[in-house]
Amino acid sequence: MKTLAWWVALSLFATGVILILDRLFRKLLPIVALFKLSLVFPDRAPPRFRTALRNGTVKQLKRRMESGEFSAAAPQEAAEQLVALAAALNDHDRQTRGHTERVRAYSVMIGDEMGLSEHELELLNWSGLVHDIGKLAVPAEILNKPGKPSDEEWVILKGHPAKADALVEPLRPWLGTWAESATQHHERFDGNGYPNGVKGRNITLAGRIVSVADAYDVMTSTRSYKKPMPAEKAREELAVNAGTQFDPDVVRAFLGISIGRLRLVAGPLASLVQLPAGGASLGSATVTGVSALSAVAIASVGGLLSPPVEIPEVVAMTAATDIAVMGQEDEVLTLQLTGLAAEPGVVVTLSETDDGVAEVSVGGVVTFTPNADLNGVVELPYNACMEDGRCDGGTLSFSLAAVNDAPVAQDDAVVVPEDTTAEIDAMANDEDVDGDALRILALTVVEHPDYRLVPASVAFDQHRIMVEPEPDQYGQVLLEYTIADPSGATATASVMVRFESVN
């Protein structure tokens, strides 16, 4: 019985020591980060202790930025201030304290699984540490609000990657594209992320890795508006969203990390394992002993080995293609879709157009019926979506060459008194759909047995017909005239002139 009580007392004492040490060593993490930075960039890294001593409150640091001191500083000086801001982020965002360090650790574990070099892992280490630096531009009352943010607050929160762009600028000469984790960790592999909608492997490797690490930590961490998700369920969510939200290669690497290792990062001793061996103030036996106790505790909870999670096979998506076809006005055009749109199971949606009617049939054949007399180029965007929800778009271009349409001549009829010369604007009701200028090409007097034909003299110019009857004659004069456009296309119509008898 005494033995049991002794073990209980020892366990409680060890737990208390662990929590106290954890809080103590978390305060050393900014200096640890600077120490690691000095190892990566020994000739350019800011003096770590000077930076730590200068680390004031967030308000003081932000005031220095707003006064212009930050933007006017030399790159090394700006980097020192940025490190100070990163160290202050935990105080600014109390609700998610520790999130930055966990994401940094998860990111390095992913990079290790992906076979990155030691140099790349060090760059990724620093990249993960500054990934949420843009949150310093978000008011603390929003970050630390109890409960779920409002729609307006979500808009402000979603702006933090864009705000990070200027903050990480001093780090770009050192980190290059690895600094983009701060601006791209909310981009999606399918291009539907923010702030810029970057797609696929146009997202930097840093952005793709930190995106997975960040999402996993958010899912498995407590928030004021949600409970933590079990690690197994979070891994399944990552697998389900591989190829849409996340890079499948990065997810596959993450799933290669055991849940036990992930829990070690998230557990109360996470800060201890971040301390460099050369800079630890504790004796190695102390650290080793506590780490061993942590490993035993983790093993008792769920084991160091995690069950395998199958990542769905992500079918490589064929790109949608732009297709062009040529024809003539008033011609019905057809084309065969290619690329993604031609694959089985893909749903194709055509945009609407005021220039005609477009339809897609089974087999990927598009039929376009243009409006009458339409010529020029009609561009028709389309979208092709796979069964898993991934989509890509293209443009169909229909080039309609202008075709000369023959003019249209309309019959005319006029009535005038006898002994009057009739002047007829015969072309007033004639037309040409191409808008070409028309002229009268020929005029003929027509004999007709049903009419009392009046002898008369006839003449015409480009647009008018003149008919002068002989004196005291009444009856009809039947004419046929031909009009032509500049290309020589013609049309024929008739003119009936009736001269009425005058007493």
Characterization of this structure:
The chain folds into 4 domains: 15-52, no CATH class; 55-266, Orthogonal Bundle (Hypothetical protein af1432); 323-401, Immunoglobulin-like, CATH 2.60.40; 407-500, Immunoglobulin-like (Sandwich), CATH 2.60.40. Helix content is 38%, strand content 19%. The protein has 18 helices and 14 strands. It has helices spanning 2-26, 29-40, 48-54, 58-66, 69-72, 75-92, 99-113, 118-129, 140-143, 151-157, 160-167, 172-175, 181-184, 205-220, 231-240, 248-255, 259-266, 284-301; strands spanning 323-328, 333-336, 347-350, 356-361, 365-370, 376-385, 391-401, 412-417, 422-424, 439-445, 456-460, 465-469, 475-484, 490-500. Helix 2 packs antiparallel against helix 3 and helix 14 packs antiparallel against helix 15 (231-240). The longest helix has 25 residues, at 2-26. Mean pLDDT is 77; it is low at 35-58, 70-74 and 269-314.
Query: Architecture of the largest domain, CATH level 2?
Result: Orthogonal Bundle
Query: Main sheet?
Result: 4 strands, mixed
Mean pLDDT score: 77
Reading off the top of the CATH hierarchy, the class of the largest domain is best stated as: Mainly Alpha
Apparent shape: rod-shaped
Overall radius of gyration? 41 Å
Helical content band: 25-40%
CATH superfamily of the largest domain: Hypothetical protein af1432
Strand portion: 15-25%
Distance between the termini: 147 Å
Strands side by side in the biggest sheet: 1-7-6-3
In DSSP terms (H or I, runs of 4 or more residues), the helix count works out at 18
Low-confidence stretches: 35-58, 70-74, 269-314
Number of domains: 4
CATH topology of the largest domain: Hypothetical protein af1432
Structural class: alpha+beta
Number of strands: 14
